[in-house]
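Holo model, S-adenosylmethionine. Inputs:
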Amino acid sequence: MESPPFIPHCDEQRFTACEYDRWLSRNTLSARWVRFWFSPRRILWLNTPISTLPRAAGISSSDRILDVGCGYGGVLLYLRRILGGVPGAASGWEGLDNSSLMVQRAREEIGQRGLEKDIRITEGIATKLPYGDGAFDVILSGYMVKHLSDDRLRDMIREVKRVMKPGGRFCVWEAIPSRFGFMNVWNLKLLRVGVSVIHMRTAKEIRVLLEEEGFVIRQPFGHGLYYFYPPLPRAGFIAVRPSS
Ligand SMILES: C[S@@+](CC[C@H](N)C(=O)[O-])C[C@H]1O[C@@H](n2cnc3c(N)ncnc32)[C@H](O)[C@@H]1O
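Output:
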């Protein structure tokens, strides 16, 4: 596992938020690149397996859903589009992100579609979720957990468990190391273009952390092909909070 750069006097999560804000607000090629790909219109290119997620995780429009590290809100908007729902009558979908620029962008995207009553976006950190116990049926987190150290990721998983109903599903996916060692130098360079705090974990390491915190892995998810394919293997899991 790669160790992150030393960050003096700064909480890891706040530091990441500052880096995303700085990166997104620039006019560099990489900032334009990331704004292009984070747009909800291209969400399937980066998160291809979400097209199979409703069936795989048994998600319906009446479920209460939270996306932790929601970025521009693209995954929530995609699910809303394919699952449908009566405007104004949604069951309280939420997105949370620690970058204020991401939050602003997500609110704009949601507002442009007239869904601000249905999908609420909150600025906050993954290890301190501002929601009540047992509030959600489904919690999503795409490409976020690499920004947390093992201790913080454990804190996040505990928080996810707390705000999830018994029997709820945690759907988490992330970039993982390549089985070709020489590719990892390049992959890490790619992932660190705008944000330096990256903790690469194997699929097994992510799985073990989830299981140690009491989740039961229902099935691997998202190990297949992605439409947009930088040489980054990815893995994901649907993890269930047991009923008792
Ligand atoms: C690679 S982006 C993925 C965004 C979105 N899930 C997607 O797939 O389009 C990671 C997101 O996680 C957010 N993030 C990183 N660390 C976080 C933390 N500790 N708490 C909340 N959000 C965090 C970042 O601001 C960023 O929006």
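Confidence is low (pLDDT under 50) at residues 1-9. DSSP finds nine helices and seven strands in the chain.
Archived with the compound record.
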